[in-house]
Design a protein that fits this description.
- This is Acid phosphatase.
- It is a single chain.
- By secondary structure, the protein is α/β, with parallel strands linked by helices.
- The chain has two domains: 18-149 and 245-370, 3-Layer(aba) Sandwich (Rossmann fold), CATH 3.40.50.1240; 152-235, no CATH class.
- The protein is 39% helix and 13% strand.
- The protein has helices spanning 56-76, 97-110, 151-161, 164-172, 174-184, 191-206, 217-234, 246-269, 283-292, 296-300, 355-360, 370-373, 401-413, and strands at residues 13-27, 89-94, 134-136, 276-281, 310-319, 322-330, 338-339, 353-354.
- Strands 1, 2, 3, 4, 5, 6, 7 and 8 form an eight-stranded mixed β-sheet that branches.
- Helix 2 (97-110) links the parallel strand 2 (89-94) and strand 3.
- Helix 1 (56-76) packs across helix 13.
- It starts with 12 loop residues before the first strand and ends with a helix.
């Protein structure tokens, strides 16, 4: 059972609040669509890399986000040494090539000032220090890859689809969805399909690709609005008149917030040697984390986190044995690292959120045993049988990770 013990402040103060530990969670850089619709003029050969992979633009975004984090936590606060040391920084990624590549790119930026940590030879990439990135196989991953094999989550999603509010949404938009199906030849059967289709269109537009004439401005905008609210609903957020489904949020994001709180506890009691834990993941991961913080709606509404968006949770020592949390957010590569602690549920308007308050307000999302939590309950209701967020047809085979890493490193170091 997670427990954080806070000692009373007995009046012994430190000179100034001291930043002692940070954890960051980011969404990977810009990618290609996971798939496209049959009538799209932009099939896989139209893209620089295969389906669902980080593009050179995404690599550049993550490198720059890494530099931004370096400027804040290496240069400004001097929390982390400019020279890489394995006892200071631990990087973990989902076992997805786009998240792994983004981690490599970000850490190349973060340690761009590292010296004496790579061969000083003519043929070595200038200034590049290899940083280890750890990952757990997807089939065993419940922390960073939220689309996991969790029977209870599929059961909850099936129950959600059977709610009157969702049936009403699908019926109200029947003619619109029929038009999308007929024109795109894409199977749109549920909210996941609606979001998947909207996401493909959004990425094509982001890369300045001309959309087919039948996708008018009104159709595009309605697809995006419906897709974004569908995304929130799928992952337990308040949407379509339904309140937040706390159990769904706990199953998708509880393992991550539980680990974050555990890391903080261990830092305080001296069993966590690291100064920095970095997690490289997905929009689903980052949006889910923001839901556990109670900040998703206030910060983004129904919008997605952008590519490279980063949440940083800072642990500060305020007094002897008294600690506070500051939560910060960089919306994308162009945005600064803003403080959003006032948007975190329970934290109020003060500069720091008292640690005990921060922990107490996360209790609804704590997961002690994800395997037990994911067991189906004996309730009458439909079960979602299609793996959550599995696209139709299945994703194209990815490039080998080794080849992508080479491309990533070569591109970054050519900047």
């Amino acid at each position: 059972m997670l427990s954080v013990v806070l000692l009373l402040n007995v009046g012994l103060t430190v000179a100034d609040p001291e930043l002692i530990y940070i954890q960051s969670v980011w969404r990977h850089g810009a990618r290609t669509p996971i798939e496209t619709y049959p009538t799209s003029p932009y099939q896989e050969e139209a893209w620089p890399v295969t389906w669902g992979e980080v593009t050179p633009l995404g690599m550049d975004q993550m490198y720059k986000q890494g530099v931004k984090l370096k400027e804040e936590y290496v240069d400004k606060y001097q929390l982390v040494s400019p020279n890489y040391h394995k006892t200071q920084t631990y990087v973990q990624s989902s076992d997805s090539s786009r998240a792994l590549i983004s981690a490599y790119a970000a850490m190349t930026g973060f340690y761009s000032g590292s010296r004496g940590t790579y061969p000083d030879t003519e043929d070595w990439p200038t200034g590049w220090t290899p940083i280890p990135v750890h990952a757990v196989a997807t089939k065993n991953e419940f922390m960073l890859q939220v689309n996991n094999n969790c029977p209870r989550r599929k059961q909850l999603l099936g129950e959600t689809y059977n709610r009157k509010e969702i049936r009403d949404v699908m019926n109200k938009n029947k003619n619109f969805l029929d038009t999308l199906r007929q024109q795109s030849k894409y199977e749109i059967d549920d909210l996941e399909d609606v979001f998947g289709f909207s996401d493909t269109l959004k990425i094509e537009k982001q890369y300045n690709m001309t959309l087919p004439a039948w996708i008018t401005g009104d159709i595009y905008n309605k697809t995006q609005t419906l897709g974004l609210e569908s995304f929130d609903c799928i992952y337990g957020g308040a949407a379509f008149g339904l309140p937040e489904n706390k159990e769904m949020v706990r199953l998708t994001s509880g393992v991550l917030i539980t680990q974050i709180l555990k890391n903080i506890e261990e830092k305080i009691n001296g069993t966590n040697e690291y100064l920095y834990h970095a997690y490289s993941a997905h929009d689903t991961t980052l949006s889910g984390l923001l839901r556990t913080l109670g900040a998703k709606q206030a910060l983004l509404g129904h919008n997605l986190t952008d590519y490279g968006a980063t949440v940083v949770i800072e642990l500060w020592k305020l007094f002897i044995d008294t600690y506070g949390i500051k939560v910060r957010y960089s919306a994308n590569v162009e945005s600064p690292i803003d403080t959003i602690t006032d948007k975190v549920a329970g934290c109020g308007k003060a500069e720091f959120c008292p640690l005990q308050t921060f922990v107490e307000n996360r209790k609804d999302y704590i997961v002690n045993n994800i395997t037990e939590s994911c067991e189906m309950k004996n309730t009458i209701g439909p079960v979602k049988t299609r793996p959550v967020n599995q696209q139709k047809p299945k994703d194209a085979t990815s490039l080998s990770l080794a080849s992508i890493v080479v491309v990533c490193i070569g591109y970054i170091l050519s900047l």
